[in-house]
């Protein structure tokens, strides 16, 4: 089983990807984790990637694809794999299809205003780093250590909206690309994680 999960920041894509990959015993491949591992191990591709990152440049597609090609040959990928946050561009999508077939692309769709509520409601403790959400905890001090809670810059509504806009601009052409290939399935992500997971499993079970 070879899957791709798409979804905006705050849609719960990473959580769903982790649970679904565990359910089927397939590898959960996050390009961020893969990139850090290659750089940590000092592989030729890792060194190449570090060179670009150190200069403040984006890692080119050919380096990322090289890492993906290595990763899908690992032992834990024999039963299949799930890409989380990859591909990001049509060039990457084309390159991926040249080295691997894909069974399904799951797009977790959540309205922008709900994403702002989800992410913008996060609070972090300045003392111990504990995390809270205003929907579950209304105080402005940490229940563990009593320190003040604050909103991370990344979680401020204006930043969240900007991240969503960037994501939508980058991803719409990917959604169209996979729709044209008959691979795209869209799931309503504006519900409980358990309900979303049930819907995803209803789709993926057809592949088993």
Describe this structure in words.
By secondary structure, the chain is of the alpha/beta class. The protein has a domain at 2-26 and 79-111 and 156-207: P-loop containing nucleotide triphosphate hydrolases (Rossmann fold, 3-Layer(aba) Sandwich), CATH 3.40.50. The chain is 48% helix and 16% strand. It is built from 8 helices and 8 strands; from the N terminus they run βαβαααβαβαβββαβα. It has a 5-stranded parallel β-sheet with strand order 2-3-1-4-8, with helices on both faces. Helix 2 (31-41) crosses helix 4 and helix 6 packs across helix 7. The N and C termini lie close together (8 Å). The model has no long low-confidence stretch (mean pLDDT 94).
How would you summarize what this structure contains?
The protein is α/β, with parallel strands linked by helices. Helix content is 48%, strand content 16%.
What strand order characterises the main sheet? Answer: 2-3-1-4-8
The run of helices and strands is: EHEHHHEHEHEEEHEH
Low-confidence stretches: none
Rg estimate, integer Å: 19 Å
SSE class: alpha/beta
Fill in the keyword field for this structure:
8 helices; 208 residues; alpha/beta; five-stranded parallel sheet; three-stranded antiparallel sheet; Rossmann fold; globular; 8 strands
